[in-house]
Write a structure and sequence with these properties.
This is Methylenetetrahydrofolate--tRNA-(uracil-5-)-methyltransferase TrmFO. The protein has 2 domains: 277 residues, FAD/NAD(P)-binding domain (3-Layer(bba) Sandwich), CATH 3.50.50.60; 158 residues, Beta Barrel (Elongation Factor Tu (Ef-tu), domain 3). The protein is 31% helix and 17% strand.
Length: 451
């Protein structure tokens, strides 16, 4: 294994969290080695050996830093010179109020910037054990290799928890029938015309919707492997699982028809609408929003071609499903994200039980700074709980109920209430603004420790 000197930080995994951790620590003057097993050891979901590769979606979700918790997290990462956010801004695609990126150039830029950093080395190898000495961050993500998974399980003494992430299908734009589909963001959201037309919409009447639900329910699904259970994370439920929960579920979820007007038939209100979002800067690829699935490939093409406008759809990638590994962080990690039984090891990213690219990168940002401060002998005050970063890290390192611990996106439910503000839907706008104002002040105060 590479240099074990007391001054080197070893980061295992070059995804969102590992890349961000490396960038933050390197910028604080620490020598960093990123250990990445791809492309030598492949995973089910990755296509390349690039650092920061996006596998599930190309969206970082809402960019609204005043009314949305994930948008606030974007803001905090930009304030901290986050590699993932600055690169995302560089390769941004129109997506209404969301931050979507051109995934290949994004990962290529993340890789190039890290490799060009004088304090960063990338070592392509698989790490299969938890080292006894040296400074380490394990950011191996949802696709932690089986060997390393066993080592983590042996060390923590806890049953490794697993759930499944599902991948939505991607369609070639040229194969979509635009005499039936149209471009419009829900409620015409967005500053520019491009953003107001960031989504492609396919309408369904009641009969088409009912037939679609029937086909979903009866389609061939992939089987689970022995020992795997279908404990889905609710934010990434396969559409057929949603359909099984009730015939109207999809109409109130990813297929809701609200905020959209069909220019081909302006007087006809669609019963349901399937939305597709641009998946690359060229606009040649679109992913079907919220359509993660575990249907078999043949069934997918049949069922998805029932969607009006997609009768002749050609797929760049069909949906899939993969196992996702995460640890019970509330019982295993201290407030500095260190493994209590082996404090030379930190965990970061999705393996800690945060869900989503942004949340993973955010935990990488914190772990990178914490590890670098420790190596440099600096005292860091606790991450303020009122910031989005603080709300998340507090949740995974003790705020969550260990017995029922499940992966979590950042959300205002993780924030401490603001005194004097009324609850309920009515007061939501003022409440969210109060949360974000308070968070920004707390985060900037914490960052001033690094100047």
């Amino acid at each position: 294994m590479t240099d074990h000197s007391a001054q080197t930080l070893h980061i295992v995994g070059g995804g969102m969290a590992g890349s961000e951790a490396a960038w933050q620590a390197a910028n604080m003057g620490v020598q960093v080695v990123i250990h990445e097993m791809r492309p030598k050891v492949e995973t089910f979901a990755h296509q390349t050996g690039n650092l920061g590769e996006m596998v599930c979606s190309n969206s970082f979700r809402s960019d609204d830093d005043e009314q949305n918790a994930v948008g606030l997290l974007h803001w905090e990462m930009r304030q901290a010179n986050g590699l993932i956010m600055t690169t995302a801004d560089q390769h941004r695609l129109p997506a209404g109020g969301a931050l979507a990126v051109d995934r290949d150039p994004f990962a290529e830029t993340v890789t190039a910037r890290l490799k060009a950093h004088p304090n960063v080395t990338v070592s392509y190898e698989e790490i299969t054990e938890l080292p006894a000495d040296g400074n380490w961050i394990f950011a191996t993500g949802p696709l932690t290799s089986p060997e390393l998974g066993k080592a983590i399980q042996a060390e923590t003494g806890a049953e490794a928890l697993a759930f499944f992430d599902a991948i939505a299908p991607i369609v070639y734009a040229e194969s979509i029938d635009m005499s039936q589909a149209w471009m419009q963001s829900r409620y015409d959201k967005g500053e520019t015309e491009e953003e107001r037309t960031a989504y492609l919409n396919c309408p369904m009447d009641r009969e088409q919707y009912e037939a679609f639900i029937d086909a979903l329910l009866s389609a061939d699904k992939t089987e689970f492997h022995e020992g795997e259970t279908a404990g889905y994370f609710d934010g990434c439920l396969p559409i057929e699982v949603m359909a099984e929960r009730g015939r109207e579920t999809l109409r109130h979820g990813p297929m809701k028809p609200v905020g959209l007007t069909n220019p081909h038939q302006p007087d006809v209100k669609a019963h349901a609408v399937v939305q597709l979002r641009r998946d690359n800067a060229l606009g040649t690829l679109f992913n079907i929003v919220g359509f993660q699935t575990k249907m078999k490939y043949g069934a997918q093409t049949e069922v998805f071609r029932m969607i009006p406008g997609l009768e002749n759809a050609s797929f760049a990638r069909l949906g899939g499903i993969h196992r996702n590994t995460f640890i019970n962080s509330p019982t295993l990690l201290d407030a500095q994200m260190r493994l209590k039984r082996k404090p030379n090891i930190r965990f970061a990213g999705q393996i800690t039980g945060v869900e989503g690219y942004v949340e993973s990168a955010a935990m990488g940002l914190l772990a990178g700074r914490m590890a670098a401060a420790e190596i440099l002998g600096q005292e860091l005050p606790e991450v303020p709980q009122d910031s989005a970063m603080g709300a998340l890290i507090h949740h995974i390192t003790g705020g969550a109920e260990a017995k029922t611990f499940q992966p979590m996106n950042v959300n205002f439910g993780l924030f401490r209430p603001v005194d004097g503000l009324k609850g309920g839907r009515r007061g939501r706008k003022d409440r969210y603004k109060a949360y974000t104002d308070r968070a920004k002040a707390a985060w900037q105060a914490w960052l001033s420790n690094f100047s």
